[in-house]
């Protein structure tokens, strides 16, 4: 019933690497299957342009899901990412429309994200409330603030210069993809190579042990929520650059997509487990699915059905390739 | 007279509904190895948790080198020079051994990145003193309990601490590993470190400690010079009465209750066959990793067998889940109490009743009056302390948790009891009670299997002993041929014996100890 | 009441156009003292519903009737809306104006209000089958009007695509169906995609990008609301096809007007929420005053493009005048 | 920092009862505070009619939240309650409209709920997938099935006889309140007095230990999800009885309200902990809030803000009154 063959017991090092890649390999197999199916059914699916589309369409969810992954690893969850993004978007946008320099407006938007994350983190780490409920509460609160701030109206007329920042491309890839790739790289380094990454895994894996070992529990959790807030705000900047407008209702149900991406990528909602590579693959799986179903002009009810079934199927494939761990 | 390295001054600690420590004072000098003894629940762990900054005392203070120190959290305690090995393993299974050892204070390159290699190098050298075979890069979760405990010890050695507190560091270790630990501790003492050593194994304490403090129910009974007192006297101080030295008595009768043939598992157990009689106590000895736990898990239905047959009272049974095993009359008292034994938030009664719902709820609704009555009766029999049946079990000491788990099978009317390391982390008083209990059960006609790494325990209890090696039965010893040497001789792989390695049992004899 | 046939607001025979109210029922009647009106709509996160509230307020102010206007917290919040409506019944308002989330979620209100002898007016969107009074436009007609524009202005036909609102929502189903049926009639147009946009700009943007990538020769999009249409336009622009692809929305929110004037969005179907609000409250209060109105009072809608945008977007009275002219012209 | 005084040490029995009620007392205090505030601000708030309204308006959420509580205690979560209710509603309704006898139609609807729960339970208990993700997947799947089954249209024209079952009243209380009160009583008995209740608490508290002690882990978990599905279906019957129609989009976001009620009532999303009384109080808190804010004519953005803040405040009160336990 164990996921490791007996022979590997003798070489735990190799075994460890093996385990690692097995997990992400499961997700990768899922992606490959989905790509193959759509490739067979949809002419032009593998066109370079379409593949870039998929990446671009996955980038916002990937950005959120990376923050979500860190929070999930720490043993928490962040349901408030959508409203955090909305609040950040409308504030940046109204500053931009008022003529504030881009850098300042973007900085302000990102600061809002950090602040939203900080509040979540404090309520979880210092006050000791359950993450699900804290962020369920702030989900409503932040959304309400965004609506009140704008009176419910979208903020329109973002300066073209600002939009150009996020709409350009580099080496043939859209800026949003480049930005999110950079974020993913940083997240990977943070998780794999820095003390903070270890602390996250430790806090989520065994909080008591982490505390006794002197890990700064509260700071680690708060940092995770702040990063999640920051990335939600970054996603918001990318999105408003793309759409040219910021709406207070932006980001509705983003949290579910982000959680789904992280979970498909192997994060455990029990904490202590999660992978940056897996999460990115998870986001791309979801993006591919949306893209493919749209190209196939699948009727909306059946798209919903496909979404549900593919989440289940991805988890099943994942389960089969990696065992219970 | 020099200032003692460590002084406890009038420490008290009150938990909800329990006064765990009351006015505890004693001191430990630099270079001294100081035993801390007491029954389960005496307050030893609580005191050490105060020393290591996990709990704050309700009253009193801790002095290091004569100066009062504030130990508000584990970081402060570490900064004050305290290193601690906790009774319960405090580890993160998904991190590597080295990452666990450096958790909370990792070595870094340029203050940014974790210096993995350097950590692993240093971890390896700390581990080398006790068990060089542990790979510091392996995920901790892949290690066995004993190895994990060694990692825990090695972690405490990494710090150049002034005070090292060890709360039952050897509960899963074999004697040979203890031998090496003893040398390490002696080395610490030579360097002027003050060591506080908690163990229920009195011979260990007498072997390495100069002085010891004995606690009972949260108060200090006395601090004694171990050279000047007998083990018996210490035990009397711990339990507050004299313990009679009991002799083995056999209650085995003719008929075979459990018959196992060719049992094997995918992972470890190979072709195990034996019979277990009515009223018999069967001991199973072997080295760590020889497959004893796994054999018990097969019998308890917790793991699936890949081959073999099991018969109870001559009828073939299939044990594919603990539920089926329980229905067939088999119950397991597991090795890892916290993980496999207790439901922490639930009361003693609930934990006890879990396996016998059909008894307490014959018509689908639990008869709480009956439950109360049975719980009270069984818990009196095992001498639960404090006697609070409705208190969540997580608030009890390990020994008392164990008693509740045993009570679970008493309540379920189980006929075949499987004990895996039944007295691990359990004090002498309770240990004697449990031995007595096991004999009583046998006398009542129960059949008992006891897996233990403590050879005296096996010899004390067993009518017959199976020695396991590499998942198979290497020998079957009856009482007449039962000795620690005999067990050790069969338990150790031949090649290792020839190489002169000392993986032998506890008192495996002078030749094994060299 | 039980003997009333289930309402179909689009086909009900017992109807009157809003422009005829004064002609058929005379000047606005005198109301009992202390008359107050309660209104509940879907959600304030959409400008359409806020504008409807403005209409209620402005007419209320004009005739000296206080109006309480509430809305559920989101478009899907069916029970929340029911709670609000029940609160309004309990508080003794003389008339209720409700814009239900779905055809049935406010059903209990009909009975409670009847018991309390309070008339209920169903204003727009979802249609309560038992509703005795309905004020609003024809949802299907939104799609029909856009389809007609294509048939008229793109005589050669071509590929078009629909981006739908939330799956299963009445307005989305009707608008989509109206467009699809009408445009398919001649056989010249092909609806190559009809995919969900969930009332969401980003989703619609992504969907449009994908559709354009597969059908670069597409000639037009119809979106079930304006927010989605604006998102689609951004995708069209990013694909460099803004001159080739016409994009239509629905609702006529101010952003859509701005975009149309700027030559971006091709058009929208405005259903004049402020005016609808005014007409709805007027009809409701006429009921309070004891007049017997037809079951359906139809409110106007118009296809807005760059050519006529100014005509429909001035001050409230100017728009009213323009629409009355339209009505007189039988439009 | 402790929740029990020292003096209770001597009388453990009282101590236990004391602890028990302390938990629910925290929630009760929250409710009383909210009632007092609205009572002071809203004339006629305490009118019998309004209080009955509050109970009736809370009843559907309470019904779902009871099932959710059992699932949460078992260490899981059920996000699919809304779509389960929708599927059950449209199937019962179309049978009713086709003239099938009430009993059969209701039974079929309830059976659908059980079946939805069964699938969730099997995926969680036997396949070993994470509850959050399983029910996220079935959330879309069940919703899609309801939409496909009805073509997205509501099922109208339920027979008056059927509606009468759920719309009557008894002892001056609406039937829905009576039904949910009965369900709550049963749930309380089940949790406190039956082996299944003990098993739930044990499985959620320490699955491994429960397994060794012979608790039928899979059966217990599956039963929890089935009960949750059943109660969602029951809520659906009550609702369509009230509304006279069944819609495939019914039950949108119900899961969040149900989880909020359970959490406010003291259930821990880590499993092993939860209270029937607390959950009912939690549902009534949420219902009271909605009712009161509406009567105060608070604008919807501010209502949203209040909802968020009150969830947070309830958790804070809860936290203060009961300690970390
Ligand atoms: N967190 C806690 N809350 C309440 N009571 C506690 C807590 N921790 C320990 N206790 C109680 O304090 C007393 C002392 O327990 P402690 O763990 O210190 O005993 P011990 O001497 O280490 O026992 P053992 O030998 O079994 O490890 C016990 O009665 C125990 O139930
Ligand atoms: N590499 C491993 N990964 C996961 N579990 C393991 C591994 N090695 C051993 N185990 C499990 O650890 C438990 C103890 O192992 P085993 O039965 O071999 O030891 P034992 O003879 O009982 O010795 P002891 O209990 O003293 O460690 C068993 O349940 C076994 O399946
Ligand atoms: Mg201890
Ligand atoms: Mg073992």
Question: In a few lines, what is going on in this structure?
Answer:
The complex is a heterotetramer, with 2 copies of chain A (325 residues), 1 copy of chain B (514 residues) and 1 copy of chain C (331 residues). Chain B is built from 20 helices and 22 strands. With 514 residues, chain B is of the alpha/beta class.
Summary keywords:
heterotetramer, A: 325 residues, mainly alpha, ABC transporter involved in vitamin B12 uptake, BtuC, two-stranded antiparallel sheet, two-stranded antiparallel ribbon, 2% strand, globular, C: 331 residues, alpha/beta, 7-stranded parallel beta sheet, 13 strands, 42% helix, binds adenosine-5'-triphosphate, binds magnesium ion
What is the distance, rounded to the nearest whole angstrom, between the alpha carbons of the first and last residues of chain C?
A: 34 Å
Q: Largest interface here, residues on each chain?
A: A-D, 42 and 42 residues
Major sheet strand order of chain A: 1-4
Which ligands, by name, code or SMILES, are bound? adenosine-5'-triphosphate, magnesium ion
User: Beta-strand percentage of chain A?
Assistant: under 5%
Percent in helix of chain A: over 70%
Unreliable parts of chain A: 1-19
CATH architecture of chain A: Orthogonal Bundle
Radius of gyration of chain C: 20 Å
């Amino acid at each position: 019933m164990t996921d490791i063959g007996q022979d590997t017991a003798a070489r735990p090092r190799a075994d460890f690497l093996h385990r690692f890649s097995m997990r992400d390999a499961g997700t990768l197999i899922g992606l490959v299957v989905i790509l193959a199916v759509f490739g067979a059914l949809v002419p032009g699916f593998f066109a370079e342009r379409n593949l870039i589309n998929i990446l671009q369409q996955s980038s916002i969810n990937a950005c959120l899901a990376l923050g979500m992954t860190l929070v999930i690893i720490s043993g928490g969850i962040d349901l408030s990412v959508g409203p955090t993004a909305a609040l950040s978007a409308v504030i940046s946008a109204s500053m931009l429309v008022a003529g504030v320099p881009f850098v300042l407006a973007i900085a302000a938007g990102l600061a809002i994200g950090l602040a939203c994350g900080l509040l979540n983190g404090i309520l979880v780490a210092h006050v000791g409330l359950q993450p699900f409920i804290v962020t369920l509460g702030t989900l409503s609160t932040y959304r309400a603030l965004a609506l009140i701030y704008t009176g419910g109206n979208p903020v329109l007329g973002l300066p073209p210069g600002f939009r150009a920042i996020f709409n350009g491309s580099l080496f043939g890839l859209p800026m949003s993809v480049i930005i999110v790739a950079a974020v993913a790289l940083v997240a990977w380094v943070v998780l794999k190579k820095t003390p903070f990454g270890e602390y996250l895994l430790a806090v989520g894996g065994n909080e008591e042990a982490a505390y006794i070992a002197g890990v700064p529990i509260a700071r680690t959790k708060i940092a995770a929520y702040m990063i999640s807030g920051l990335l939600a705000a970054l996603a918001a900047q990318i999105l408003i650059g793309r759409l040219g407008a910021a709406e207070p209702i932006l980001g509705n149900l983003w949290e579910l997509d982000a959680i789904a991406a992280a979970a498909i990528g192997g994060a455990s909602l029990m904490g202590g487990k999660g992978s940056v590579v897996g999460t990115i693959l998870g986001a791309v799986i979801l993006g591919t699915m949306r893209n493919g179903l749209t190209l196939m002009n699948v009727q909306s009810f059946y798209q919903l059905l496909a979404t549900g079934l593919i989440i289940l199927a991805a988890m099943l494939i994942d389960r089969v390739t990696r065992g219970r761990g | 007279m020099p200032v003692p390295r460590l002084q406890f001054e009038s420490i008290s600690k009150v938990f909800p509904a329990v006064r765990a420590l009351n006015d505890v004072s004693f001191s430990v000098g630099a270079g001294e190895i100081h035993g801390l003894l007491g029954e389960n629940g005496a307050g030893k762990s609580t005191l050490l948790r105060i020393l290591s900054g996990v709990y704050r005392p309700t009253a009193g203070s801790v002095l290091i080198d004569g100066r009062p120190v504030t130990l508000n959290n584990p970081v402060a305690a570490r900064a004050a020079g305290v290193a601690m090995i906790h009774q319960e393993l405090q580890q993160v299974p998904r991190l590597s051994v080295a990452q666990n050892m450096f958790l909370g204070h990792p070595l870094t390159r340029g203050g940014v990145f974790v210096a993995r290699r350097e950590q692993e190098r240093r971890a390896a050298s700390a581990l080398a003193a006790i068990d060089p075979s542990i790979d510091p890069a392996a995920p901790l979760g892949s290690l066995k309990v004993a190895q994990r405990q060694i990692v825990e010890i090695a972690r405490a050695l990494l710090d150049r601490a002034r005070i090292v507190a060890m709360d039952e560091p050897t509960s899963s270790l074999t004697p040979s590993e203890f031998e090496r630990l003893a040398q390490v501790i002696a080395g610490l003492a030579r360097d002027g470190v003050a060591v506080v050593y908690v163990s229920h194994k009195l011979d260990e304490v007498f072997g390495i400690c100069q002085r010891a403090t004995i606690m009972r129910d949260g108060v200090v009974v006395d601090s004694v010079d171990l050279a000047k007192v007998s083990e018996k006297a210490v035990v009397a101080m711990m339990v507050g009465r004299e313990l009679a030295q009991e002799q083995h008595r056999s209650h085995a009768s003719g008929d075979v209750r459990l018959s196992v043939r060719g049992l094997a598992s995918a992972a470890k157990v190979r072709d195990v066959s034996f019979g277990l009689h009515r009223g018999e106590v069967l001991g199973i000895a072997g080295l760590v990793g020889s497959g004893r736990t796994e054999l018990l898990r097969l019998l308890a239905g917790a793991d699936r067998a890949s081959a073999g047959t099991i018969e109870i009272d001559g009828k073939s049974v299939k044990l594919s889940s603990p539920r089926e095993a329980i229905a067939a009359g088999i119950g397991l008292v597991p090795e890892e109490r916290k993980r496999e034994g207790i439901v922490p938030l639930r009361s003693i009664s609930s934990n006890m009743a879990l396996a016998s719902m059909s008894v307490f709820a014959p018509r689908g609704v639990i008869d709480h009056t009956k439950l109360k009555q049975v719980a009270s009766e069984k818990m009196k029999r095992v001498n639960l302390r404090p006697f609070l049946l409705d208190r969540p079990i997580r608030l009890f000491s390990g020994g008392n948790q164990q008693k509740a788990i045993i009570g679970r099978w008493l309540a379920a009317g189980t006929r075949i009891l499987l004990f895996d390391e039944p007295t691990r982390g359990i004090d002498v008083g309770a240990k004697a009670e449990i031995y007595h209990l096991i004999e009583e059960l046998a006398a009542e006609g129960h059949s008992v299997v006891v897996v233990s790494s403590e050879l005296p325990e096996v010899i004390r209890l067993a009518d017959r002993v199976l020695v396991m090696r590499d998942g198979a039965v290497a020998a079957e010893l009856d009482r007449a041929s039962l000795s620690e040497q005999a067990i050790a001789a069969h338990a150790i792989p031949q090649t290792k014996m020839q190489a002169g390695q000392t993986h032998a049992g506890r008192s495996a004899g002078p030749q094994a100890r060299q | 009441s039980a003997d009333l046939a289930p309402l179909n607001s689009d086909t009900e025979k017992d109807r009157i156009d809003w422009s005829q109210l004064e002609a058929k029922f005379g000047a606005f009647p005198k109301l009992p003292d202390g008359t107050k009106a309660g209104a509940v709509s879907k959600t304030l996160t959409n400008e359409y519903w806020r504008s409807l509230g403005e209409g209620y307020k402005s007419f209320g102010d004009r005739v000296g009737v206080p109006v309480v206007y509430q809305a559920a917290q989101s478009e899907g919040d069916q029970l929340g809306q029911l709670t609000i409506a029940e609160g309004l019944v309990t508080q003794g308002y003389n008339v209720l104006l409700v814009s239900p989330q779905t055809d049935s979620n406010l059903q209990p209100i009909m009975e409670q209000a009847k018991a309390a002898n309070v008339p209920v007016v169903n204003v727009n969107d979802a249609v309560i089958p038992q509703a005795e009074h309905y004020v609003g436009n024809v949802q299907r007609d939104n799609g029909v009007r856009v389809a007609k524009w294509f048939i008229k202005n793109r005589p050669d036909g071509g590929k078009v695509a629909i981006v739908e609102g939330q799956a299963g929502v009445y307005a989305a189903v009707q608008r989509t169906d109206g467009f699809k049926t009408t445009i398919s009639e001649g056989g010249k147009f092909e609806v190559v995609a009809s995919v969900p946009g969930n009332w969401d700009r980003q989703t619609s943007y992504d969907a449009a990008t994908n559709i354009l990538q597969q059908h670069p020769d597409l000639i037009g999009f119809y979106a079930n609301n304006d927010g989605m249409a604006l998102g689609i336009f951004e995708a069209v622009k990013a694909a460099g096809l803004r001159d080739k692809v016409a994009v239509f929305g629905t609702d006529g929110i101010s952003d859509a007007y701005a975009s149309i004037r700027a030559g971006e969005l091709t058009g929208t179907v405005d259903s004049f929420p402020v005016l609808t609000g005014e007409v709805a409250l007027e009809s409701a209060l006429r009921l309070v005053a004891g007049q017997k109105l037809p079951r359906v009072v139809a409110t106007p809608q118009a296809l807005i493009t760059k050519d006529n945008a100014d005509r429909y977007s001035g001050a409230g009275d100017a728009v009213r005048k323009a629409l009355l002219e339209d009505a007189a012209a039988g439009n």
